[in-house]
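Standup notes
- DV: blocked on the single-chain target, sequence here:
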Amino acid sequence: MTLGPGYINRNNCDELYPIIKQQKTEIASLSKEILDVQKECTQNSLQREREIREIVLHLEAEIDKMGKLQTARIYRKETIRDTVQNGGDTIMRVESSQIRVISPDLSGMRKSLKCLKDKLGTK
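- DV (later): unblocked, structure below
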């Protein structure tokens, strides 16, 4: 096959150069847009992590306060009623009251907060 000057002149790529240039510009614009969105997502994620970290520290401080307060004790009164037979025919009713002091158990909350802090990477 022989290519002549008429065929070569008809098949030059001059009309493709503007299309290629436009596509390069479009690709560069889309790449910049992707980078901007990634940056925004990263910033939002970091901001949310900071907020969670602040909440964890606040909750930890509140738990420490609760643990130190003596007024955080819960008083529970129990009344026990029982009947006792005395001497065959006589039935006596016996009642006794007990007051128990129950200190709040905050160990589960502390453990959960420690786990959350570890996941957040805070010491």
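- Follow-up: Residues 9-120 form one domain.
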